[in-house]
Amino acid sequence: MKRKIVNIDREKCDGCGLCVNACHEGAIELVGGKARLKGDEYCDGLGDCLPECPRGAIDIIERESRNYKGNVSELGQWPVQLKLVNPRAPYLKNAELLIAADCTSYAYGNFHRDFIKGHIVLIGCPKLDDIDYYEEKFTDIIKNNNLKSITVVRMEVPCCGGIVNAVKNSMLNSGMMVPYREVVISIEGNIIEDKN
Length: 196
Known about the structure:
Strand content: 25-35%
Order of helices and strands: EHEEEEHHEHEHEE
Distance between the termini: 40 Å
Number of strands: 9
CATH architecture of the largest domain: 3-Layer(aba) Sandwich
Largest sheet: 5 strands, mixed
CATH class of the largest domain: Alpha Beta
CATH topology of the largest domain: Rossmann fold
């Protein structure tokens, strides 16, 4: 299909990353210190990134490319709110579990594609909910479901540390250590830390 799409001149690009933040579709990434399109299907061709590039390395061209897919839901189960999830729900068995502070999905534009895809999702807010309840529920889930992994996505704000502590304490309480990943999102919507 021939359509309008972003074109990045890697020779002109100085790797400042302003285009990455400007792209509402999350279609641009930095690789080897230079901007590049992640894939044709992620670019809507509107060019929100153009005015942000100080080097004039980005323009819109018309060429053969894959169709734009936009933001597609990757959610595989319902409900997602931690208080509503039954710890013995069949979809939790052998799951790759994503535990996310609820603000993260609003702050990080590609949350579905980068985090939800292939995961069972539980969301909550440690500032608004009872953290002891979280520990009890997470402990029950970990003990009874033979989880493959746990990924925690939290905001950079201090109150989000509660969800991390609840998950770690729950692993200790259950006596089961599950492969663990923690991702921290900035209030600007960027990944600022990703640790296993």
